[in-house]
Amino acid sequence: MIDRPPDPARRSKAHRTKVCNRVWIIIIKEFFIDAQHDQEGTNMTSGIRKPSESEEEFIARIEFERRKDAEKAKQQEMAELEKRRRKELHFMHCPKCGMTLIEVDYKSLKIDRCSSCAGVWLDAGELDAVVGLEKGLLGRIFGGGTAL
């Protein structure tokens, strides 16, 4: 017959006390063994420690964070340099043929016109302004009402 420990709910108070005392004896022995090693200088940091408290792990985590931050800064710098390079390469050049764009006055707006293919290019917001100018004129001619 296999000797099984009794159900924990059925164990007596004396048995539980005996087990608890054994645990305390083990903890106290570990403490004194660690204290002896510390006095001998062989084990200065032993004891019950969590893995996150180890010095090597802490240093490795700091080094990883430092390298990650350095790489992130390097990537941002490279992205900024690439953005500046592309702007210098494409600024005021026709998207269609690559020739230079010339600013031309159209009513009260400045629009960009290609010197080679005569394409007209509008900056952000200029299309709305042109439509607003033209809508007022077309509204007066055809609609007779007020422009929006």
Provide a compact summary of the structure.
The protein contains 3 helices and 3 strands; from the N terminus they run ααβββα.
Structural notes for this entry:
The chain is mainly alpha-helical. The protein folds into three domains: 12-44; 58-91; 101-143, no CATH class. The protein has three helices and three strands. The chain has a three-stranded antiparallel beta sheet with strand order 1-2-3. The chain starts with 12 loop residues before the first helix and ends in a 5-residue tail after the last helix. The mean pLDDT is 76.
Write the layout of secondary structure elements.
Blueprint: H1 13-40, H2 55-90, E1 101-106, E2 109-114, E3 120-121, H3 126-143
Antiparallel strand pairs: 1-2, 2-3
Strand tally, please? 3
As for the number of domains, it is 3
Q: What is the residue-mean pLDDT, rounded to a whole number? A: 76
Report strand order across the widest sheet.
Answer: 1-2-3
Number of helices: 3
What distance lies between the first and last C-alpha atoms, to the nearest angstrom?
97 Å
Largest beta-sheet details = 3 strands, antiparallel
Q: Helix- and strand-based class? A: mainly alpha
N-to-C series of helices and strands: HHEEEH
Helix % is 55-70%
Overall shape: it is elongated
Radius of gyration from CA coordinates: 40 Å
Percent range for β-strand residues: 5-15%
Which stretches are low in confidence, meaning pLDDT under 50 for 5 or more residues running?
A: none
What keyword list fits this structure?
148 residues; elongated; three-stranded antiparallel sheet; mainly alpha; 3 domains
